[in-house]
Amino acid sequence: MINKKTFRIAISAIFIAIILVQTFVPYIGYIRILPGLPSITTIPLTVALAGCLMGPGFGASIGLFLGFLSMFVAYTQPGDIVSMLLFRNILIALVPRTAAGFIAGMIGQAAKDDSKFQKTIVYIITGLCTSLTNTLLVVGITSLWYMRDPSVLLHSLGQTQNSAPLVAILISVLGINGIVEAIFTAVLTPAIVMPLKQVMKRKIS
Questions:
Q1: Buried b / exposed e across 139-158, counting CB within 10 Å, b at 16+?
Q2: Sequence-ordered alpha helix ranges (H) in the chain
Q3: What is the pLDDT of residues 76-105, one digit of tens each?
């Protein structure tokens, strides 16, 4: 058996290490499909797992760490101009990821039934909501931030001739990424969380 405080520190270190690997090792955390647009990221899955396993506070902390890391990458080695414009902004970098981790923990707590089916459904919803929270908040905050002068962002997106509202343009351009990320996170969250929960129960019981 392991002391709960020691176990929590160990889990924190593991999650931080995983996110660092996903961020800095090519094609693990970020997968580029369309040149010039932000990569599809697998990191919302890690945030969803953190929230499901350790609760909303821990999930929010891991999300916050991811946000700071996103901002660091945007300043030091941005993969594209859009990511640079978005994630150098402290609100766009931090708020969506922190909120996603908190949401993951809140929804994941509902999986207390002994029914495997019930847990699977809850974790699927958790993964879906985690990813969508991140995507929709990025779109929403970006729309508000660039509302007065969206010209630089529209130019980077190749949408200078598009007269639609900025939020609609962002949804249409970033929508594919968001859908793929949401499906990926929703499918893998229950497959990973459920066996890990059993291991954790044995380790700290």
A1: bbbbbebbeeebeebbebbe
A2: 4-24, 43-54, 56-76, 81-87, 90-108, 116-145, 151-157, 166-204
A3: 988 778 888 899 999 999 999 999 999 999
